[in-house]
Task: structure prediction
Amino acid sequence: MSATVLRRGGFRFYFFWREEIRMHVHVHHAEGEAKFWLETRLELAENYGLSRQRLARARRLVEENANEIWREWKGHFSR
Result:
């Protein structure tokens, strides 16, 4: 099961329940998907089909919404 955290510019940002302990977010777009590590620094973990431009946009959106994503992570996984 996944929890959608945010929707921006054609991207859906979400977590998978009980996947990995290390803080991360998945990003889905009609073109493909990616996964970003959020600790200890923002880093691309996986890319499945996103173009360089879409990947850069996804990364910027993660950076711009980092506080909200982190807050949601803590809310979902500290239960």
Notes: Residues 52-64 form the longest helix (13 residues). The helical segments are 52-64, 66-77.
